[in-house]
């Protein structure tokens, strides 16, 4: 897997984490490969540069033929079978997809949806232009970014500030902020926070916290190669070893001691790059 990471336009940076141009699989056309996907806490807009593409999600027993698509938040591990492909990604902030697309994110949980099914015929002109220039990834990215900026202006009235603040509080506490403290820090009632958080992020505050904590644990395991589960249980606030292992397997698909069994992991590859220092302008 080869990926180049690009920095979004400054006006989009509060809502878009990074862009990526990624090649998955070998050079042979329609070559199939296995991929694991785990929740990373945000949605992804994808344009597949290859005209023909195959994708099967065994978790949902579902085939996809969605060249320009949006994948919403995930709340569990997914296993994919896919053909080799070259793709352009826009990786949103947790609340960013709602701001840009204007669609309640809980409707898109665990789904990969054709963008024209979400936004209607208004998107068809952009789709055709990207398809016509699919052999020029940088130009496709420029077309996509111009459209994203237009969407941001269109949805200017959508306010995500309070939910952005709630997400920030959860992340700086590594997913371990008590929920009552979150209500207080957000200056929102339980019902109001739950409603707006699901609408703008796609997950409940509790599930988002679990996803954030899992990603911190996964990063810690990769960085330290530790097998001291008691240290992790203490550091990240799990009840006991059984709780930690069950939670890890729910999101990763394998227990912590089975990490090596995971197929090439798209989420791990992407999340490692988006937080790194290798970003460039295009």
From TrEMBL:
| Name assigned to this protein | Helix-turn-helix transcriptional regulator
As one GO molecular function, the record gives:
DNA-binding transcription factor activity
Q: Which SUPFAM superfamilies match?
A: Homeodomain-like
| Organism, scientific name | Pedobacter frigoris
Which InterPro entries does its entry note?
AraC_XylS_family_regulators, DUF6597, Homeodomain-like_sf, HTH_AraC
Protein keywords:
DNA-binding, Transcription, Transcription regulation
Question: Domain HTH araC/xylS-type, which positions?
Answer: 161-262
């Amino acid at each position: 897997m080869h990926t180049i990471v690009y920095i979004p336009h400054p006006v989009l940076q509060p809502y878009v984490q990074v862009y990526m141009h990624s090649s998955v699989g070998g050079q042979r056309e329609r070559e199939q490969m296995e991929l694991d996907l785990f929740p990373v806490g945000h949605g992804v807009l994808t344009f597949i540069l290859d005209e023909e593409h195959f994708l099967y999600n065994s978790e949902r027993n579902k085939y996809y033929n969605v060249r320009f698509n949006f994948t919403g938040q995930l709340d569990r591990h997914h296993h994919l079978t896919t053909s080799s492909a070259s793709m352009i990604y826009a990786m949103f902030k947790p609340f960013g997809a709602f701001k840009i697309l204007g669609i309640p994110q809980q409707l898109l949980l665990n789904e990969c949806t054709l963008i024209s099914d979400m936004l209607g015929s208004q998107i068809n002109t952009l789709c055709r232009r990207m398809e016509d220039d699919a052999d020029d990834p940088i130009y496709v990215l420029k077309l996509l970014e111009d459209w994203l900026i237009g969407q941001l202006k269109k949805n200017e009235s959508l306010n995500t500030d309070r939910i952005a603040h709630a997400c920030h509080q959860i992340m700086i506490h590594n997913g371990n902020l008590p929920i009552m403290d979150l209500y207080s820090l957000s200056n929102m009632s339980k019902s109001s926070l739950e409603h707006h958080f699901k609408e703008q992020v796609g997950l409940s505050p509790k599930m988002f916290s679990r996803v954030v904590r899992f990603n911190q644990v996964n990063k810690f395991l990769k960085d330290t190669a530790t097998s001291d589960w008691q240290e992790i249980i203490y550091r990240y606030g799990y009840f006991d070893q059984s709780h930690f292992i069950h939670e890890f397997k729910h999101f990763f698909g394998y227990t912590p001691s089975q990490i090596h069994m995971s197929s090439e992991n798209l989420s791990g590859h992407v999340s490692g790059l988006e937080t790194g220092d290798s970003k460039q302008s295009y």
